[in-house]
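Thread: Modeling a multi-component assembly for a lab meeting

Hi all, long-time lurker, first post. My supervisor asked me to bring a structural picture of a complex we are working on to next week's group meeting, and I have zero experience with this. I have the sequence lines for every component (710 residues in total). Could someone generate the structure of the whole assembly? Inputs are pasted exactly as I received them:
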Amino acid sequence: MNLSDQHFTDDNIIITKVEDLFNWARLSSLWQVGFGLACCAIEMMATSASHYDFDRFGVIPRPSPRQSDVIIISGTVTLKMAIRIKRLYEQMPDPKYVISMGSCSNCGGPYWEHGYHVLNGVDRVIPVDVFVPGCPPRPEALLEGLLKLQEKIRNESFGDKNV
Amino acid sequence: MKSAEEIFNILKEKFPGSVTELVADKPVDPFIEASPLEIDKICTFLLESEEFKFDSLMNLSGVDDANGEKEKDEKGFDTIKGGTLSVWYHLESIELKHKITLKVSTERENPEVASVAEIWRSSDWHEREAFDLYGIKFLNHPDLRRILMPYDWEAGHPLRKDYKNPEFYQGMKVPD
Amino acid sequence: MALKTEEMILNMGPQHPSTHGVLRLELKLEGEIISDVIPHIGYLHRCFEKHAEAMTYPQVIPYTDRMDYLAAMYNEFGYALAVERLMGIEVPERVEYIRVIMGELQRIASHLVALGTYGADIGAFTPFLYCFRDREKILHLFEITCGARLLYNYIWIGGVSHDLHPDFIRLTRDFITEFKPNIKELNDLLSYNQIFIDRTANVAPLPKETAINYGITGPNLRASGVKWDLRKDDPYSVYHKFDYEIPVGSGERGKTGDCWDRYIIRVREMEESLKIIEQAIEQIPDGDVTSAIPKRVKPPVGQIYTRVENPRGELGYFIISDGSLNPYRIKVRAPSFVNLSIMGELCKGWMVADVVAILGSIDIVLGEIDR
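Re: Modeling a multi-component assembly
Sure thing. I ran the full set together rather than chain by chain. Output:
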C-alpha cells in the first residue's frame, strides 16, 4: 500500500497514519555509506552505475556515516576490520539499517575453514536486517535485497526502533 | 645473458665460504644456496658488478621447511622442534635479461637473516611480510614490524606448519 | 618573532570514498604540505596462502580469482601456466588463443574501472558512468562463455572449462566496432580536458632508476620511460604471434612519469588490446579444449617461479611442490603490493589533494595487496 497510490479526493488531501507516512519517507530515500570491502563492492558499484541504477530507488552514496541510513557490508570481514565496522555502525544516527551482501559477510564465505583472520559472518559484531546470498551476488539480487528491506521498513511500527 | 652455472662459478670464486652449492637436478628452476648472514654482501656484488647488473628483485618469500622433529607439547598439540626456515630470492636484470634464484636457510628456533632492504627498496615490504607470517628476523632492516596481521596479534606466526589459533581476539571468536 | 608550528597527523582511514578499498593512509602534514605518507594494510588479509596448502591444485583456482577481483582471468592464467610448466603439460593451440582473448578482454575491463574511478576521485562523475556502460558489454561476453560476471573459475590446469559459445566471435566483433569510437569519446571528455590536465600533469613524476629499484612494474614503469612488458620481453602463451605496440610515457603534457602519463598509458593500452583481440579471433584454430586436462594433478618434487603481465604489473607465482596432491607453498608476488610501497617516497612535498590523484594513478586493488 503505497502512499502515492491513494486517490486524491478532496482538493489534494490524503488521510493516513503517521506511521505509514514516516515509513514511506524512510524507505524512499535510503542513503548509503560509500563502503566497499572486496569483490562484492565492484558489483555494488555496477549496481549504482547506469545499467542497473540504484538511484531510481532513492539510494545515493554519501561519504560519511553521519549522513546515511543504510550500510551495505560488501566483502570479507576480517578481525582487523571488524573493530572499525563496529565503530562505523555506532557513528550512524538512528534509524539505521544493515544489508549484508555476499557470502563472505553472511557466514565467512569460502574462507570459513582455514581463515585464521576472517570473521565468520558480520552478524557477530553488528545486527543485520537483510542477507543477500551469492559470491558475488548479481546486481539484480542486490536490488531484490533492497526491495526486501523496503518491505521490512514499510511494516515497522514506532515501538520497534527508538525514534 | 649468463646461465646459472656461469653465475655460480663466478660467485664461488668471489665468496668462497658463503656460497655453497648449485642445485639444478629438480624441476624447474636451478637455485644457488648461500649463507644467511653474508647474503647482503653477495647481493651488493650482484647489483653493482658490470657483468651481472641484477637491478630488480622480483620476489622474496619465506618458506617453512618443516624438516625438524615432530613432537607433542604440553597441551597435546603437534609442534616441530629443530629444522630450518628458508628465504628464497628471485632476481633479474632488466638490462642484460637474465635471472637467478638464491636460497638461504636458517635455524627454526632463532631465525636471523641479513636484510637486503637498503640494496633493493622493493624488498622492504617483502621482508616485513616474511617476519609477520614466519617470524624470520632481518638484521639491519629499517622498520621491522607486522604488516598484514594486527599490530597486537600475540599468538605467533600464522604460516608456520605447526601454528595454532587463539580462542578469542578482542572479544571475537577466531575460527580454526 | 617566529611562530611555533607542529607536525599534524591526519588519518585517511579504512573507510574513505577515494582509497579504492580498505587502506589506511597516515599523513604527516606541515600545514597543507605532506612530509610523509605511511600506508597501513592488512584489513583484507584473507589467508589465501594457508588455504592453498589445504586444497588440491585445481581447488585453488577459485581462490586465485578472488585476489585481484578486477582481473580475475589473468590470475587464473598465471596460476595455470605455473602448474603446467611444473608438470610439463602442453595445451592445445585453441586453448592458448582462447586464454589470450579472455585475458585481453579482461585487461580492457580492468582499465575501464581504473579510469572511471580515477575520474570520480578527481571530481568528474560522468566518465565513471560511461566506462561502466562499456564494461557491461564485456561482462556480457564473459557471462555467455562461463556463466559468471566477475569471478569465473574458467581457466583450468591443462585447458579451459567450456568451449566458446557459437555467437561469441560475432558478438566480440560487434563489441570492437562499438568500442573504438568510445575511446575517442573518453579522450574528449576526460583525457584532454584542461581541468584534468591541471590536476594531474607534473604531479609526482617518478624517475626511471627509482622505479626499477622499488620493483615497480606494469603501466607505472612504462610511464616512466622504461620499455618493459612481459608479453614481449619474456613471452608466454601465443603472444609472439601478434603484432602490437607497447606505449611508453614521454612527458607529453608535463614531466615523464607524472600522473597524466600513468593515466594515458592505460588508455593507449586499451587500444593495443583491441588490436590483439582482432588478430586472435581471425587466427583462432579449431580443436578440443578439454583434451589435455589431467585427471589428477600431481606435479613432481620441485619449485618454479612464473610471471605474467597483469593489468597492474608483474604477477608472479612461486610454487613449491612436494609430490603430493596439495601444494606445499604458494607465494603470490602481487604487483599492487610492490607498487604501493612507493607512496611514501612519491608524495613528499605535494599537497593533501594530490594524494588522491597519486593514489588513483598507481591503480591498486586491495584484494591482491592483502591476499
